[in-house]
Write the structure tokens for this entry.
Amino acid sequence: MVEAVKPPPLYQVSDLRLSFPDMARKSLFGAAPGIEVLHGLSFDIARGEVLGIVGGSGSGKTTLGRVLVRLLQPTGGQLKFDGQEIGALDEAALRPLRRRFQMIFQDPMSSLNPRRRVGSIIAAPLKLHGFDAVSRRVDEALDHVGLPRAFRHRYPHELSGGQRQRVGIARAIAMQPEFILADEIVSGLDVSSQATVLALLEDLVRDLGLTLAFISHDLSVIRRLCSHIMVLESGRIVEHRPTDALFDSPQSDYTRTLIDAIPLPDVDADWINRD
Amino acid sequence: MLDARDMVKRRLGLRLWLSGGWLVLLLLAALMAPWIAPHDPLEQDLFTSRLPPFWMAGAEPGYWLGTDSLGRDVLTRIMYGARVALIVALVAGTATMLIGAALGLIAGYYRGWPDMVISRLIDIWMAFPPVLFAILLIAVLGTGLTSVIIAIIVIDWTRFARVVRAEAMAQGAMDYVASAQVAGQRRLGIMLREILPNVLPTIVALLTLEMGIAVIVEAILSFVNLSISTDDPTWGGMIAEGRTSIHQAWWVLVFPLAALFLTVLSFSQLGEGLKDRFDPVLR
Amino acid sequence: MSAFLSIRNLSAVLKGGPPLLRSVSLDVAAGEVRGLVGESGAGKSMIGKAVLGILPRAVEVVEGEIWLDGVDLLRLKPTERRRRIGATAALIPQDPMTALNPSRRIGPQITDRLVDILGWRRAAADARALELLEQVHIPDPARVMRAYPHELSGGMRQRVLIASAFAAEPKLIVADEPTTALDVTVQKQILRLIAQMQARHGTALLFVTHDLGVVSKICGTLSVLYAGKVVEDADVRDFFAAPAHPYSAALLAATPRYTDPKAGLNPVPASVIKAVDAEISAFDRGWRNG
């Protein structure tokens, strides 16, 4: 009965591994040897949690994200979503589950089909999953992200970067998912739109009770939004703790280096020579 | 205010009008040839042989562009030749596009073994010299309009396949494809509904180019007497005949050549014009 | 005039189209580091390009002066202008992945300018390149000289580009978002390196960036741009203590602060945008009538 009080985590990940075939070392015949990108990651994401995933380029953060929404198939370990093992499912078996985990992409220019209008971009996944009242849902999604309903008739290239990213968010939330993966969604935006998009995401997480994984290279952006932070380096978890604890007393040198490298907007003559 | 993009658009508009206008004119002439052509294309009359075009001394009324050495009316024969040229352009061009683009799309989006097979096929095809290949094919199939069309399809599908494959591959790497996959879209659906619309402008541009090429190939084949029967007028056949009397009657060579040139140019300009005009991303 | 670079009332338009720069004036003294801050489309890169004479063809300068080392560049003939700029100024570009020619070795890409334009002897140019690669802390510089760009990491390539920019001892360097494409830890190293090189060579630096955090760490003065107009020109200490223009204040409040998460990342209020847009329209009206 004690179990019933605490719901199981939305994601349970243990010893998750992924290797890519190394085409450079492939022999003429036979399979290419693998390069391991994720070296056995284990962690949970609780329902309602906002998890920040941080690391430099080559840390494996983007790869991990793509495994979580099963754009990539792990080569080892367990990946449980809501108690169900999804790591080995094929595309057909995944299809009914797909509505429940959505993704917002880094580059809204590339993630919105340039030859479709905004309305059709948001409606396409809804139709695919047999939602009723698609048109009303598109309007509601646009309302949610603070875009005028008339925007459904526009093409992506007619929007600003921040507006495009909101379309990406609208497309994801329209599906009423339980989990959203946001991959570097503000890194291409100006500071003013960055702040706006983050504030929007903060509201949506609270209002819709979303579980969110937010991938970023920028710890200062993550601090504002996330309750927990996972720091990755070279495909390994170096630290995974509640946000405040991590900032107050970083336990790994790598985390400390990452935090110290952020240039705060304050004049500080010594910063640049401090290690 | 007149902004720079308007200027570009206006110029493209003119290009579209000129090339489209010529092609429409040609299409009408071809369709209506039996009714509006001034003469019978095969009618020979040695009394009217090598008449010059209308503005030169010695021209006869009714023979606007002059006559050839057998006394056949050049304008009439160009109009009838346009029938062959346009049939080849439309049928061969469209069929080449359908086959080439489909294979290119599959290879570029699905990758894996379909790509292996199609790419190897393209490599092998590219190793054949195209004109020799065409002549060989006609030799096997026999002459005739159908053979010419089949030869063009068999040789030229690789042009579409190569370009469309590369384009589909580039589009396949875009996040909107990943996004459709996250949404649960099937592979075939992604290919047709997400990728195809983005490759379509390229396909249209290639199609018009291919139509121009088909006209040239037909002309070359009739020039070497491998197209349709020698009696029926074709531009290539006229050019071949005109070549022999270039010093006595230049117009027999120059007018069909000009028609060929304008047609091929119009096809390629039409493609560019359509692309710039109707692509929502460029517009 | 003590400024080494002095831009006076520079206005530029997209040919037959909207204004891109609206009467921009700014100075960079010898040895000064000036930040040029603004959001995308504000015209900050355009100013850098105008100084280096590499404006896109579609952009037309309609008025103004660009004084570089006592000469107004805009009055020179194109060949003379290029020669002049080549001898006094250099660029550190944004994207280290595309700024180097992938099919040529690193060495010649650094020495080209020295040999072809400044007439150095090959051996002297090579020695100079080696010395600079050492100054930017590249391990085994002799090997890197012979390497191709793809053999180096992004951070290493940016070091090569910095070395290359300083090679001919320019008196002015325009750095166009030089750390935007880099990881935050690499960014810090590169900023440190640019600061060290700038101090060592006494170069004037025009540092184009969207990141106020970076400006606070490397610049002495800054100009804030909005819609191609300078809305604030200040000393960095004064600016970060209290920005004078409401738009710059809003920009600063939108910049994230990990030390105080509630203080940073505030969306720019619509009222601020409205006010600054009104300011721009008023300026345009005055410009058209005057």
